[in-house]
Amino acid sequence: MPNETITQTVSERYARAVTTGEEMCCPTGYDHEELQKFIPEAVLKVSYGCGTPVGLTTVQPGETVLDIGSGGGIDCFEASRRVGAEGKVIGIDMTDEMLALAKSQAPIVAKNLGYATSNVDFRKGFADAMPVDDHCVDLIVSNCVINLAPDKVKVFREMYRVLKPGGRFTISDIVADQPIPNYMIQDKEKWGDCLSGALTLGDYWGGLRQAGFGGIHQVGFIPWRVIDGIHFLSLTLTGYKLSSDSIKQTAQFATFTGPFSRITDERGHSFTRGIPQSIDRETEQLLKNSSYRELFVFSDSPTTLTKEHPQWSSVLPEDAPCVWKGQYALLTGPFVEACDDDEHTFICGEAQEICSKTNKVLESEAYRKYFAVINRASETVTSQEPAACGPTDGCC
Ligand SMILES: C[S@@+](CC[C@H](N)C(=O)[O-])C[C@H]1O[C@@H](n2cnc3c(N)ncnc32)[C@H](O)[C@@H]1O
User: Fold this and answer.
1) b or e along 186-203 (b: 16 or more beta carbons within 10 Å of the residue's beta carbon)?
2) Which residues are 121's β-sheet partners?
3) Distance from C-alpha of 60 to C-alpha of 84, rounded to nearest angstrom
4) Both 285 and 394 in a single domain?
5) Kind and range of the H or E element at 9?
6) Closest ligand 1 atom, CA of 11?
7) How many domains does the chain have?
8) How far apart are CA 349 and CA 337, in angstroms?
9) What are the pLDDT tens digits along the chain (396 aa)?
10) Which segments within 86-161 are labelled E, that is strand?
């Protein structure tokens, strides 16, 4: 299907939705009571996101926030409140009807927030060619939009272009556990349903990485629908445009603290828990300015960690039988590859079958934030027979 047809179909779908106010899409997790205090019902009614771009909670007063596919404006208005009257918000959308609603509500929200004028600028434009200057945005948010864009690679490049060095994104979107088959890609109606255009988690994460982002990791995950055996997930990801400015190198070594026994970062460096590794300036920037920071000890001389060190982290499986129940784990970053203490190797975005014992490990506080776990068994697994599950025919 040509890209223009996809764009037109999607736009018509959302133009219709904003006029009818029909219910669409996915669970979000907003605090509606809180939003109702300053956002009119007309906007809340056409909230068609699939998450809460919790990046908004990291916004500092005075920052510039960009919302890609702003729709009726819900996230723009929440950002407007958080950046304060000195800050600025830009909302981009391709659908006239959505823009008209958002623009009409902006003065009402500004008044509710006590601002002299609205600090939200709604602009007509496409996600893959945004009417936004280079390097002018502190935070990009987007809520259930990029899956609707036919050319995601271009969107990711655009995101990188408009962000300031050191800027960040938090986007909620629909991804799939496996590639979408052609019959679904060619189904016009399913584009608007946020299904046909869903990338696999691996392709989504890889696309952002290719565009130049680092420290890309999950900040939220909601299992959504299973259609023809394909699991659609709502995932919220954060990542950084790391600045290649003149920061001096301050640490020569980094020691990984766990909970994994071994990881490979997005630049291909491997780290073994407890073993110091020399790092260059770029690696230090990646590890210190993103989600990796809390997982390392940085030092001028090699620092070896042992189990007794307060930052050492590991989760060993229980001494219990392994039972297969249909669970699959998807590593959601920020590592390209990571190994647990049972020698299971997880690759970012790839669904890997896990036994009940490993599932318990991944559900632990230390591991939970790195995984999306789905169950591919279409019927409840009743057998409780323990089975071999280790790489060498033993149990893990
Ligand atoms: C699912 S709705 C989400 C709207 C809003 N983010 C929210 O949370 O309510 C998708 C919105 O993205 C817009 N959109 C879809 N594809 C787009 C694209 N390629 N460029 C710009 N806007 C797009 C649609 O017009 C629609 O308003």
Assistant:
1) eeeebbbbbbbbbbbbbb
2) 90
3) 9
4) no
5) helix 3-20
6) 25
7) 3
8) 10
9) 899 999 999 999 999 988 887 777 676 778 888 999 999 999 999 999 998 876 788 899 999 999 999 999 999 999 999 999 999 999 999 999 999 999 999 999 999 999 999 999 999 999 999 999 999 999 999 999 999 999 999 999 999 999 999 999 999 999 999 999 999 999 988 998 999 999 999 999 999 999 999 999 999 999 999 999 999 999 999 999 998 665 678 889 999 999 999 999 999 999 999 999 999 988 998 998 788 999 999 999 999 999 999 999 999 998 888 889 999 999 999 999 999 999 999 999 999 999 999 999 999 999 999 999 999 998 777 766 666 666 555 666
10) 88-93, 120-124, 137-143
Domain CATH for 387 = 3.40.5.100
- Give the CATH number for residue 34: 3.40.50.150
CA of residue 311 to ligand 1 center, whole Å: 43
Q: Kindly provide the residue ranges of all beta strands, DSSP E only, lying in 336-386, ordered along the sequence.
A: 337-339, 345-347, 351-355, 371-375
Q: Are residues 143 and 230 located together in one domain of the fold?
A: yes
Q: Smallest Cα–Cα separation from 240: which of 150, 112, 334? A: 334
Does one domain contain both 121 and 182?
Answer: yes
What's phi and psi for 71, nearest 5 deg?
A: 55, -135
Same domain assignment for residues 68 and 129? yes
* Residues 251, 277 share a domain: yes
Query: Tokens at residue 239, please?
Result: 């990542």
Q: Helix, strand, or coil here: 353?
A: strand
Q: How far is the CA of 127 from the centre of ligand 1 (A)?
A: 9
Residue whose Cα lies nearest atom 14 of ligand 1: it is: 69
Residues near ligand 1 (Cβ within 6 A): 10-11, 14, 25, 47-49, 69-72, 74-75, 92-95, 98, 126-127, 143-145, 148-149
- Look-up: residue for tokens 């001028």? 300
What is the value of pTM for the model shown? 0.94
- Domain end (from 271, 294, 314): 314
Parent domain of 334: 320-396
CA distance linking residue 119 with residue 138, whole number of Å: 15
d(CA 233, CA 174): 5
Q: DSSP class of residue 342?
A: T
Round to whole Å and give the CA distance between 244 and 385.
54
CATH of the domain at 301: 3.40.5
